[in-house]
Each structure stands twice: as C-alpha cells, then as structure tokens.
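Hey everyone, long-time lurker, first post.

I ran two proteins through the pipeline my lab uses and got sequence/structure pairs for each. Pasting them in order. The first:
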Amino acid sequence: MTKRLYYDQPYLTAFDSTVTAVRPLAGGCAVTLAESSFYPTSGGQPFDTGTLNGLRVCDVSVDDDGEVWHTIEGTLEPGMPAHGEIDWPRRFDHMQQHAGEHMIAGAVWRLYGGVTIGLHLGADFSTIDVTMPNGETHLTAEQIRAVEDEVNADIQRDVPIRCWFPDDAELSALPLRKPPTVKEHVRIVAIGDKEMVACGGTHPSSAGQIALVKIIDARPSKGKVRLAFVCGMRAVMDYREKYDACTQAAALLSARCAQLPESVSRLKDAIAELEHRLSEAYQAEALGQVQTLREHARLINGVRVIAARLPALAPDGLRRLASELTGDENAVALLAAEKEGGWNLVFSRGAAVVLDMGKLLREAAARCGGKGGGRSDFAQGSAPDLSALDTAIGIIQGEL
C-alpha cells in the first residue's frame, strides 16, 4: 500500500520512491509507488499533477482497495526508482481552496446552523452545498457578509491549521463540526479554536496563507443553498477582474465606481424612454401603411393574405396592426417584426376566414426552427428568419 507523504508533508514538492506495480494503458501506463506525495482525487479535491522520472502525471486516483494509482504519459517498470515532482502552484491553490472551504462551512454552521454536504473544487471557483434549518434555501447579503467577515478575520489573525490522526479515545472527545464519514484512519483538520472536522485533504499550516476568501454566489440548489467561493490568488484575480471592469465602466459614464449603480440606473431609464418613443414612431409608421398593405395583399380563393416584414415593432404594436388589418373579415395578416436574433411573428384572420392561425403559425415557425401558437383567430411566436412567412403562404394556398 502506498505511503501517502502529503498527509504529514503537504509542502513536499519532490520525493524519491520505487515503482511497485504497473498497469499498461493506451498512450502510457498507471503505476503504484512505495510512497508518494501526489494527492489522488478524493473528498471533492482534484488530483495533483507533476512528473515521475520526467514523465507527465495526468491523473492520480485511489482504487477500491485504497491503493494510489498514478497515470503517466510514458512507461515505467516495476522495481524502478522513481523521482516525483509536484506541480506546486496547483497543489498550493488546492490547499488554499480546501482550507477556505472548511472555514466558510464552519462559519455557516456556527452562525446559522447550516450543515455542509459536499465540496467541489473547480478550475475557476469552488462550491459547497449547505442544508439550512427549516428548509431555507437562501442566504441574505447580510448573512453572506457576516460569514466572510468572520472567516477573513481569522485569516488575518493567521490562526494555526493542524492535521493529525487521533487515536480512538482522543477522537471520541473531539468537538467535531460533523461526524466522520469513515470509521478507520480518521484524519482531523483543526483551524484555530473554532473549526474542527474530519478531512483527508491537503491544507496550509496556517490560515494566513489562504490570504483572502470571497463568496461570489449563493443560490438555491436541490433544496439546499449552493455557495460559490474563491480563495487566495483566485480571490485576488477575481477582485482584479471586477476592479478593471468597474473602473472602465465608470470612465465611460464619467462617474466614480461607487456611483455606477446610480449611473447605470439612469442610463437604463433613458434607454427605456428612447425605446418607447422609437416603438411609438414605428407603430405610427406601420399603422400609416394599413391601406398600402391592403392594396398589396395576395388574393387566394377570395381571401386577402397580407404578408409584411416590419421594423422592430413592439409586440403590442404588432398586435394592434394585425387587428387593424383583419378588421376586414376576409383578410389574413401574416406579420413579422425584427428583433435581436430573428423575428417576432403575429398571424391573425378576419371573422369570415376558415383557417386556424394557431396551427398555421406553429407549423410555419417549426419548419425554420422557430416556435409559437395561439387561438384559431390569433397567434404569435418567433422565428430565426423570414421563411416562416413563405411557408405560411404555401400552407394557406394548400388549404384554400
């Protein structure tokens, strides 16, 4: 069985060992070692990468018997000496994220009684799922700030982080945040005098090395609260990205960063007012074309079919135009108005026309990747292009 060096030496970046078993794989092989500093995927923490005898280690995993297998791009032989080197930036990043997760989970438990179920360390951010009392699935902005404040205060105090394997007597007396998920070889991680839980992951020796913790999202997920967070350099990069975006946006609006919400709100109101005025102008223009559209109608077995493409007319304006056109009981209006990425559709008919507009629009839109439907006398939907109008005309010709 591989001796796992990272348990006691998480800062060990190079080691020497012996290959104990080899399993051929396509493009390389998987090997076990007498001892290894490579962390295998487990407990929500991804595997370490690095090299063995200069060959890239692209995966590390544990089998059902607890043996650690290292997948490498190349071949080694049983009994060979092996020199391993760990990708330290990746390892230390995972140490920061994992320790930060413990501190966040501990603070949520102490402050609000939330029990953390599961951890996922992603490439850009990490997440935990928290079961809250009384089925709550939200944390307020104030609650999130309280968690961040408590965690970052302990980070600034640089509280110690201790990892060890207690004997059964000691383990039974420890004030763990939640019961261990394993029965044997239980490893404990304690952070300061507040957080203590069973964990087999890698962690820094003190909280100050986490540097900074920031919760970047909190939302309901399958009856729990899912918290997304970044720690260490990830938090620094997140701040840098947001700072750059904030300062650039503020410069465009001739405002300070703190004034951005107010400036953007005013800008949205101004845009909404302009869009309303433009829509009214489009609607007035469209209604002014009613007679012209009627004159250019296509006559199909006594039914006047009016097909028209229009500018970015608001849906209510499009419906009003359709109503004007189908005041003629023998008319059918097939209208398409521009929108971002396609066209809004409204199909309407006069009282004397025996056609189902809901079915017509649904069929015509579906043939070009659109959608919609409605009543027999009125329907609306959308389509990526104007072929829906030609399709609808073809269907009408077939039915009439």
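...and the second, right after it:
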Amino acid sequence: MDVSIVVPLLNEEESLPELAAWIDKVGVAAQLSYEVIFVDDGSTDNSWKVIQHIAQSRKNVKAIRFRRNYGKSAALNEGFKIAEGEVVITMDADLQDSPEEIPELVQMIREQDFDMVSGWKKKRHDPIGKTVPSKFFNWTTRKISKIKLHDFNCGLKAYKNELIKNIEVHGEMHRYIPLIAKWAGYTKIGEKVVQHQERKFGHTKFGMSRFIKGFLDLLSITFVAKFGKRPMHLFGALGSIVFSFGFLIAGYLAYAKFFMAAYRMTERPLFYFGLLAMVIGVQLFLTGFLAELISLQSRDRQEYLYKEALNIQQENIQKK
C-alpha cells in the first residue's frame, strides 16, 4: 500500500463527508493505493455515525473510537499502530488541511528520501489570538530543538512508516513529533509550504490551556532527551553545587564563632539557610543516584530484549 492517511477528530460531523470525498478525488487522480484511518477522540456529536456510514461505502476506510476524549496525541498514536502504508500522512478533519498536498508530500518522502516532511501554513486564516501564541511557540521550539521548521504544530505531515513505528506519542507531544523523530535518529526532516483553508464548520479546539500544556511538554521532553540516560549529570551536579554552597556557609559561621565573635550559631538566620542548602544538596544527589540506577536497569532490559529479538530473527532466517 502506498499511503495511510491518519485523521484524528473531535466533533467534526459536518466536515467528514466532504473530507472523505476530497481525499478519494485526490487519491484516484494521483493513482495512489491508500487507506484512510479515522480516529474519533471521544466526539459527543454524530461524528462516529458519519464515520460508520463512510466506512460502509468504502473498503479502504478504518475507524477507531475512544469512549472519551484522550487528546490528539493519543489519537495519532493509535492510528500509527494500524497504519500499513509506505508513507503515512496526518491531517486534521476540519477541512483546513488540503488533501491536494498529499501527492507532493508522498513524492518528497519517496524521491527525496526525507524521513518526515512537515507542513508550513505560511498564510494562515486564523484569529490573532491563535496566530501570535503559535508564532512564539514555534520560535521557542525552533531555538531549543535546533530544527529549522516554521510550523511544528501543523497537522499536515508525512512520515516514513518506519519512523512512526519507532516512536510513541502521548500527552500533548504531537506538537513535537519532529523533535521526537530527531532524537530517535531520523534527522532528515523537510518542510513544505501548504495551503491553509478557512474553517468551514464548527469552531477551533485551540485555547490558552493547550498553549501552556504544550510549553510544559516541551520542557519535559527536552529534559528527558538530554538527561534521561544520564540523570546523575543533572541532579548530581546541582546537588553538589547546592551542598557546597551550604557547606561554605557553615564553614564561615564556624570560623566566625571561634575567631571573630562569640555567639550561638543557631541565632543567625544564615545558619538555617546553610543547613537547608546542605539538606537539599544531599537530596538532589541521592535523587540522581536512584534515577541513575533505574535508568541503568531500563537500559539493561532494553539491550536484553533487543538481543532476544535478534536471536529470534536469526532463528527464523535459518529455518527458512
């Protein structure tokens, strides 16, 4: 199969029939063998009934339904699991992403050998309350990730099937799939300017809470990527610095007591500040030590599973 098109959705009953027909039109014209995977993320309208109706008239439609809303990342992750196409396309169901972009995206993956291609909505039809936070978010992510993309959150993207089978998306991490892909070793990431259609039905699901959650997820994924395999480098270093600072305070107070003036060390607020710094330093160091042990066990288990998989693969080859 050439292409799998994964469409996560929430309350988009009005746009689904037109989207399905549009995808069929483009797929037939481009002579692609394709499947469409609709993932209903807990819709409360008639979206699921519409999807069922679409699936009855088309053999190349798959559908997944969540009983409640888990978020776009979870929907994409489940769609990725069952995607069979050589190239996997993701797009939103609100008709703001144009299926006309699919053939060129597929071509960029196949002929230019990109691991993934991200869409760039250069000209957007969104209110300023959405575009300004989006620009700030993209600038921040670009600076932290060192990935030269203009629109990390564009729903229209293309991937090699191998890539989406080797990553896991959760929380609000769908915004950072290019970053997750890069850290998984898929570094050839391209960008394509895509058309952004005005919203025809319904209303946007974007809100300030999603922006805040997205920023926190960026900090989380950056921390895990940099220190997930060496937590002692962070916690141990911070613990040593804080403890040393507290120890210096205690040393100064002891010197002052015996050589400068007679007083009770516990009467000085600086004493408690130094004591607190030493306690926090020890706790940070122990946190890093325990995290390092957990990380080591996790790596040992992954290596064991990897070796077992290789052994099974070799046995199967020998049997053939």
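Reply from user beta_strand_b:
Welcome! Quick read of the second one: The first strand starts at residue 3 and ends at 9. The mean pLDDT is 83.
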